[in-house]
Design brief:
homodimer, alpha/beta, Dihydrodipicolinate Reductase, domain 2, Alpha-Beta Plaits, six-stranded mixed β-sheet, 15 helices, 38% helix
Chain lengths: 436, 436
């Protein structure tokens, strides 16, 4: 089948991330989508940089109209941002019968109704997974995963900059201003951070989520927007004394009188999972009447996380628009002909870390014997715990955490440790995963 | 448009949950799917109970063959469980050209390859969101939301029974046997809990996730399966001393040599979000090369959470099979004609709890004045914190957490509190959400 041709408007951070991931994972993505997806054309005002980044693989132009008017282009990715040119180009692409993928929350929250109406009339898709919470597939969850539910409320940490600032304010007891400067130096906040710190970016995203959760038009103008600039370190401390964390939340709730739609710093009980989302991470908590609460967590920004969402939309459109109905989304996620025969490894070959507990005589030399056995098998020790023997006991427990090794090495080590005269009974073995 | 006719095989816990949610949220679901979805026929051996539950709305039969052979049925939901009859019926439904929705992980993990081959040849969909992690849309995330990524590993708490037992063992310092009995009494463990506590159920689910993450056939027979029955309370305690929690994880990893696929009790650092998933909740952590780590959390079992996943599959199939390609998944999640005009509430009308901080003179009567103002506006106090004045100071901070009230009441209260002679400056107001 001939490739899907994609035109990319704007090759900045997310654009180059999209270009790179699409190239790096081309084989994997084709196995899923059923046909190859290629960025055939790139428009950017910085034509030199665009040429460098695309390295001759795509046609590079400085006039985005050449992309949206090109009859060979199937899907247009809009990564220009803002409401002006971006809106014109999206509407032109739609008028030309092209599907559109965009990460532009500001555009959708303020002009989405007009854009979706045009797309509906023209029969094209407009996909926007990247507009909310970066790589977390929260749009898909709300639009498709939770369709059985009456959504009752959504509360999300949907701006990484402000969550980073709040985490630092809490960790270091610093005031807003000091942390903002540090965040800017680290690249977690932009030179002009107004949209982030005043809550506008979060409100754009909350507006989009409210729309697809309840089936209402985008109404950014009715959202209440309050940022974190006036937050004092003392309030973060007092909240903590009372068992709460302060997070900038985008909240939307269904009530009998209407929909609440608001962004503001919010105290939440520290025992909630979402209260423990730190640094630049995002998380969205959704309450549905059937499913209860579900939480979606991940990176809400950055080149490749956002690219992950942009490309998921490309694959969705490719699957929906080009396959026959019954084979549109492959049963096993990959196209049937693309199922691979990667072997499942036998357990002896897996690699992980281990917790070992052994019951030993409390006398010199025991630990030396045990560590020698581990060293001989190239198993290195990460941590150790030796308990005092109980009152009147001569034996005690030693617990060892190892670094990563093959399971067969651990099995060999355990056999040797159990053969030591100073060790009683079996060595208890548990596996340990850092999950980092 | 005429309704989609669904046949339900088995109306036990999940079946009746599906029936009830579909009925309760009929309007909402139709707005999303574009047409009505009706359970027209139910097969169950307990025909009396089935009649009672369906209350004359669906035709009730005791021979499931009547459902899978009925030409009026578009989609068959298989909720019988097990490998025997369930497999025959699913294959018959497919042979008769019906789409299938199933929650049967055991069936898919062991006979999935045969079932998906038959479905592929016949051109019907087999959807199974409910087979892994109940209401959490993890299958959709892996199959559609993360298609840009080379999935590197998945680690999931995908069995609620064992997670409940491990949480209780840790909280109460009890041994496995004691907690199992308690879990059975509470309904968190079945009378015969073997599949859960020996890790088999988790291994079925891990097998399914590995298949769709890497594009490999289902290979349950190659999974390593170790349960929690031999876990001792002392190991949970020692692990905790070292900064770890023990969870039963379903793990699958891509390595240069092949795929790891294993279920076993696992130590994980306590600071990871997934280490803090307690009780019967489920969570799946997925590492992709572009998106990084994303986490999906929610209820992994129960009538309505599982029904949420079953119905999401029904809506998916309805959207895919019955709309024209461009309008298949509505832009705003609801069909364009079904967008509603629910009002967005003005901020004065929203209801939440509040954190109030005020700077006051440290003398008798101040607190009485403040609490009187709150009481007069029917605002009740949840917690209070009064700091000692600093060395040589005569003023101090009072922090009050209120119960839920309308924002306009709080604004009125703040106006009155700020007018008190004993209160200096502005009252700081932050909103508080329990998110429970």
């Amino acid at each position: 089948m001939k490739p899907i041709k994609v035109g990319l408007l704007g090759i900045g951070t997310v654009g180059s991330g999209t270009f790179n991931v699409l190239k790096r994972n081309q084989e994997e993505i084709t196995r899923r989508a059923g046909r190859s997806i290629e960025i055939a054309m790139v428009a950017d005002l910085n034509i030199e940089r665009a040429r460098e980044l695309t390295n001759g693989v795509a046609e590079v132009v400085n006039d985005a109209n050449l992309v949206v008017n090109n009859p060979d282009i199937d899907i247009v990715i809009e990564l220009i941002g803002g409401y002006g040119i971006a809106k014109d180009l999206v509407l032109k692409a739609i008028a030309n019968g092209k599907h559109v993928v965009t990460a532009n929350k500001a555009l959708l929250a303020t002009h989405g109704n007009e854009i979706f109406k045009a797309a509906q009339e023209k029969g094209v898709m407009v996909a926007f997974e990247a507009a909310v919470a970066g790589g977390i597939p929260i749009i898909k969850a709300l639009r498709e995963g939770l369709t059985a539910n009456r959504i009752q409320w959504i509360a999300g940490i949907i701006n990484g900059t402000t969550n980073f600032i709040l985490s630092e304010m809490r960790d270091k007891g610093l005031d807003f201003g000091a942390v903002l400067k540090q965040a800017q130096a680290l690249g977690y906040a932009e030179a002009d951070p107004t949209f982030d710190i005043e809550g506008v970016d979060a409100a754009h995203k909350a507006t989009i989520m409210a729309s697809i959760a309840y089936g209402i038009p985008m109404q950014f103008d009715k959202a209440y927007v309050e940022g974190i600039t006036k937050l004092e370190a003392s309030d973060i401390r007092y909240a903590e004394d009372l068992g709460y964390r302060i997070k900038l939340l985008g909240i939307t709730k269904r009530t009998p009188e209407g929909i609440e739609l608001r962004v503001h710093p919010t105290l939440i009980p520290e025992k909630r999972l979402i209260a423990n989302v730190e640094g630049a991470m995002n998380a969205v908590l959704v309450q549905g009447d059937a499913v209860g609460a579900t939480l979606y967590y991940g990176k809400g920004a950055g080149a490749e996380p956002t690219a992950s969402a942009v490309i998921a939309d490309l694959v969705d459109i490719t699957r929906l628009a080009t396959a026959d109905p019954e084979h549109r989304v492959p049963h096993l996620a990959f196209q049937p002909a693309a199922i691979s025969d990667l072997p499942i490894l036998p357990m002896a070959e897996i690699v992980t870390s281990y917790y070992l507990r052994m019951h030993v005589e409390d006398k010199p030399g025991v630990l030396a014997d045990v560590t020698r056995i581990l060293a001989d098998l190239s198993i290195s020790i990460d941590a150790m715990l030796q308990k005092e023997p109980g009152e009147g006991e001569t034996r005690t427990d030693i617990i060892i955490l190892t670094h990563q090794t093959k399971e067969k090495n651990i099995i060999a080590a355990i056999e040797k440790i159990e053969a030591l005269a100073t060790v009683t009974g079996s060595v208890i073995k548990l596996r340990l995963e850092e999950l980092s």
